[in-house]
Amino acid sequence: xxxxxxxxxxxxxxxxxxxxxxxxxxxxxxxxxxxxxxxxxxxxxxxxxxxxxxxxxxxxxxxxxxxxxxxxxxxxxxxxxxxxxxxxxxxxxxxxxxxxxxxxxxxxxxxxxxxxxxxxxxxxxxxxxxxxxxxxxxxxxxxxxxxxxxxxxxxxxxxxxxxxxxxxxxxxxxxxxxxxxxxxxxxxxxxxxxxxxxxxxxxxxxxxxxxxxxxxxxxxxxxxxxxxxxxxxxxxxxxxxxxxxxxxxxxxxxxxxxxxxxxxxxxxxxxxxxxxxxxxxxxxxxxxxxxxxxxxxxxxxxxxxxxxxxxxxxxxxxxxxxxxxxxxxxxxxxxxxxxxxxxxxxxxxxxxxxxxxxxxxxxxxxxxxx
Amino acid sequence: xxxxxxxxxxxxxxxxxxxxxxxxxxxxxxxxxxxxxxxxxxxxxxxxxxxxxxxxxxxxxxxxxxxxxxxxxxxxxxxxxxxxxxxxxxxxxxxxxxxxxxxxxxxxxxxxxxxxxxxxxxxxxxxxxxxxxxxxxx
Lengths: 370, 138
Ligand SMILES: [Zn+2]
Prior knowledge:
Chain A: It holds the Pfam family Thiolase_C_1. The complex is a heterodimer of chains A (about 375) and B (about 140). Chain A is an alpha/beta fold. The longest helix of chain A has 16 residues. The radius of gyration of chain A is 19 Å and the shape is globular. In chain B, a hairpin with a 5-residue loop joins β6 and β7. The chains are: A alpha/beta (about 375), B mainly beta (about 140). Bound molecules: zinc ion. Zinc ion binds next to loops of chain B.
């Protein structure tokens, strides 16, 4: 049995990503996004009988906040991959008959962290592998340092240049200019601006790194049979694949290879497509270098050739191969784990034909990497 | 020395497990966990072997030689004690025996560090309890 075509995304909702929403909370933003997705699907909350969150938003708390009592609920706790994983779990749930219509929702409020007495956006030094072996040597909080390590190694092995990576950031910003939900909407940048932005963890620069934001997103997944009677042209889930990687980057054998090698292969096998069939891609981009390596590992670009690919290819929504058409996280912003979820939402939005001025020309087959 | 050190000190998640490592660094030795059942060297220390699940584990003294596998020049160290005009190098050093270990590179300017640079271990007494493993250019 396969999940091919067994899940239909019939509604999406997104609270615009902003630096901060004063006086809001994660649960409040999640509830708002849920309401938008339910309305978009043309259903009522009473139709929701399944709930999947990122695990940061606790399923019982979301259910209580929305006053729903689903027959299935879980939080996936998959860090940045939570959005894609939650979508996979929701598809499995409707496919197996555990429930019929699932709300997937996640979001972030930076004020929540302040309320809890933690400075927003700083990894807490609770006892961990990180606190014992990494932080004493000056690993910066958050993920910056690890991606600096990968970036340096990619340059070493493949001759990738900072200018090539800057093109990715610039292309995505171009896309964000057509996305009012993007935190950097209305703020154009070019390759030079990216190159001139300051180093955070050299070779990684500020404009190649995500900005922590507030926001939330939600989608509704149901069975293809139910989707037929709903108002939207659905986005069908044709294939899914997951590969669990390491928690700490330095535990990898190869710093220039990602679990996307396996997860994408599995997803394409299920879907019955090859990388050359893909029309556009929405790829997890906490940093340029991660999206770059995943695009290679997905087989969309040959290993080590991502630099020349960006040099030669217009990856904007108007281009030959559109990537991160909503601006991605780099230009859209990272509202916690809903940052990774934005790739699923935008992929569905394009497939559903709801992307407005940034609608891509060919929007039948999208590869999403969470 | 103890009172002056303001950078993060190691916070073990299991201080019993890693006590031998930190005692060894105080003696000027770099030891790495070793599985007596399957002969795997691994790092960081674990309560069971990540290769064969054995609990019959010991430690092996390393030569202290290795090379820079990769590194980043940290310009924005969010911990204030690491803030300096020219930042610092955070590196992953691969020991000649195989395991990779996060560390700092001392004794040269950040700009001089490169991938594959040969290094050897040095020990940095930061507090009474902790001596960090650092590396310097050979
Ligand atoms: Zn073993």
